[in-house]
Request: fold
Amino acid sequence: MHNNTTPPYNTGNNSYNGYNGHRPKKIDQNHDEDEIDLKHLFYLLWGHKWIITSIVVVCTALAALAIVLKMPIYESNGSIMITSSKNSYSYAGSDLANLLTSSYGIGLGSSVSDELQILKSRSLSMQIADTLMQLRWMKNGEQYPILYRSYPDEQTVTTQDTIAARLRDRLTFNQVDRESRLIEISFKSPSPLEVADVVNFTIEEYAKYSTQQNRKSANAAVDFLDNERKRLKGKLQDASQRLESFMNKSNIIQVDEQTKALIKQSAELEMRRQEAQSELTAANAAINQYKEQLNNIKPGLAEQFSDALGPNVKNLQYKLAELKTEKTLLFSNNPQLKKEGVTSPQLQKINNQISYFEQEINHLATQLLNKNENYLSFIGEGNNIVDEISNIHQKLIELGVKQQQYKAQVSALTNKIDNIDEIFNNLPENMTDLARLKRSVTLYEQMYLNVSQQYGEMALWQQTQFGQGQRVDSAFLPEIPVEPNKKLYLLVGFVLGCIFGVGFVLVKEAFNTTIDGVNKLKEYDVPLLAAIPDLEDQKEGKEEFVNIEGRKISTQLAAYLNAMSPFAEAYRRLESNILHSNPDADLKNIAVTSSGKGEGKTTASSNLGVVMAEAGQKVIIVDTDLRRSRIHEVFGISRTPGIVDVLFKNISLNDAIKPTIVPNLSILTTGQKSPNPSAIIKSDSFMNLIKKLEDRFDRVIIDTAPFGIISDASAFMAKTDGVVLVSRFMQTQTGEIEHTLEELDKAKARVLGTVLNGFEPEKSSDHYYGHSHYKQVYQDYQEYTEG
Reply:
């Protein structure tokens, strides 16, 4: 036995110099561990293509089954146009116009957002539910599915509240775009008849509901005007009676012309003051309403705009009010100026001044609006909210200007009326009372006429009110269901199948620790000497033994039984790689071991001995696996005598060495069973026995116990010329290989390389050239030898 002082096996630039306690992995300096090897990934997936295909087919089939089992859902839609009623009714200077507008919404337009809320309201859904419950049956004689307590299992009609809730949940209302007043209504249901009917019922019920609401507002306004007319009529009658009673008692019937003019002026001014007061009331109500809307959007936001008007606007409004009051008095004193085309220098001057102040007020109001635009740009609530706030703010500025205008008018008119009252107070007592009574009659008479005119106009307008929405498109009867979307379901099933299939392969690969390809063995710092094909492919039958020359030879000895097979050629390549890749090494003895049992080390030792003997070398195979010896079974010879008998029974070595049917190949079996195999293998006597065999044979192949689990051979491993480590395809674990190599390193054994036994190229995980290379080599060899 040689002392292992020769340099280790060298393959190119990688030298095996021992592991020094580290895991025996190759380190590729040019490879980033985090880098994804796309080629490896491709071949990995391609190698498992049938698994992935099966999973994809299953997932797609499940998607198809879901399509079949899922209830089809139909959808239909219609559309309505929201009409604006803004400015559809005019009061032409009426003192009650703004009051009616603020109190009853007369003359105000309805926004699309308001109508959307009506469409989504519980009241409208209850009306539609009531219509469906009354009809109950569709044109095909079936009950509306939405009425079922639990469709399609329980056909009992559920409650109206439940139906209305289902309608609010399934009906959708969409504004076509921000600038459009067109609203699209859609509904989904298992019945195509139901979807068309529900959409049409929604359009019809909304039109009825909207008409009712509009007429309800008009009715309230008509009632108000009627009551106001009756009240003013009573006031007029009372004032007339008091005037008549006073004249009868005092015998004063007429007043002088100057007093008549004062009465007329006072009544005119009082009328204007009541108009201004009514408009101020309406403006205040509208301002409070808009401020409430701002606070609903964001609490405290109304305070941001409460002081929007500056003192300049207030001063200008007061001056403007004085000018308008002066104009009113001028018309009162000069009725002919009211005629078209008649003017005077004084009236022209007043009109010019009024125009000037109105322009100044408009200019200041515009500045106030622009001043607050920068603030609005910082409100991060979305474009619709910003637009709404901007519109409300603009209304507040406009109403604020009017509010100051009406306040100024009320103040100016009150001052003028007070001045006239002082004149009245200077008249004789009876004349003063007569003047005041005549003024009251004139005032109530004029107010009664105005309200009567408004009442007549409102009653006529009431009869012409209809809903805000006009039908544009009626719902259609759908023929094809929108759910389930067959293409989408199948696509999702296919995609999920791909994901699950690829995921399964990647997870399987991540947890796969078996040696399932030559590339995994190439990752270690020791060379891969040979990949031996699966022996089962080389057998011509299922027999374990064949009779040759009176001996039962194991079919595992395929290198002898079928010398022209790829199996035998693989062992010749193994011999060549062992010997010729180490031309300077004297490999007298070679130990063959494995990481665990059943990995084919005995088969490898036997067939390696056969091909070496074929080459004309004198070879002996020594079975040192004293616990589970099998060499004698492979060659069909007796187990005894053997090593144990030579060492302890005084049997001569010549008697223990047995020839085989293979020329130049002998066997030294284990002999009798020993109670302490480890002690025998570690003994000096055994070492001397191996040395004697080296002197008599060209090659000594030592079949050891699996070194990964049995350490019997650790003592002489360092003294062998080389160790061949056998692993089995799809059986040996990477951890077992690493452990065995580490133990061999600790024993200072010289590892010549590894052998992959039972290799099946079609099942290999090797990528690049690995899979196809070995498969093609075996096929080419078979074709060549047969040819």
